[in-house]
Write a structure and sequence with these properties.
Layout (H helix, E strand, L loop, with lengths): L3 H11 L1 E2 L5 E4 H10 L6 H11 L3 E3 L9 E4 L24 H4 L8 E2 L19 E2 L10 E6 L2 E8 L5 E4 L5 E6 L2 E9 L5
Antiparallel strand pairs: 1-2, 2-4, 3-4, 5-6, 7-8, 8-9, 9-10, 10-11
Protein name: Peptidase S24/S26A/S26B/S26C domain-containing protein
Organism: Rahnella sikkimica
Amino acid sequence: MPRRYEIDAAFKCAIKISEKGRRTVTTEDFVAELVKINWHWSLREANHWIEIYVNTFHDVSTVEGDARTFALFNPTEGVNMGFPSPAGDYVEKSVTPNEACKWFSRPSQYLMLVGDASWRAGIKKDAIPVIDTARKPPEGSIVIAKFCGEFCLKRVRFHPTLALQSLDLPDMETLIKGGDLEAEEKMPSKEGQ
């Protein structure tokens, strides 16, 4: 029986270098080198030895059988992985406001704000507020009011009197009489005094 270093030497003699510099070994060449040192292995035995003792070469055979081809692993070459991309079945779809606001069971309205942001109320520029017209606003809610022919955002106050408070200037309130907005009747709020 040959010694391990003799088998290693036969394996190294069987290595062929391609034009691109890739090192490969075929099982037939390896067995032919073993015959030179008076050792006769079958192709299956040679494959088994390569798989156990040579971890730098990997099987690149394209056909099944005992005649295998092994190539030296080269990290600069691309490695084909055996699993698909996790994003392969991902399909992006656009989100509609109705899907984003499913907590409303009643019809809602969407309004695009044009103009400056109301940073004190937490409303950023170009925000799209969702308006639930079926609900009565609680104390301190932000509502959309028609004021002097224009729609504007106001904070509703019920106490001490029914009033709409400006978001940017909390000291300015518009009193509501009879459930409708009257003319521009502005007075400082109680909180500002």
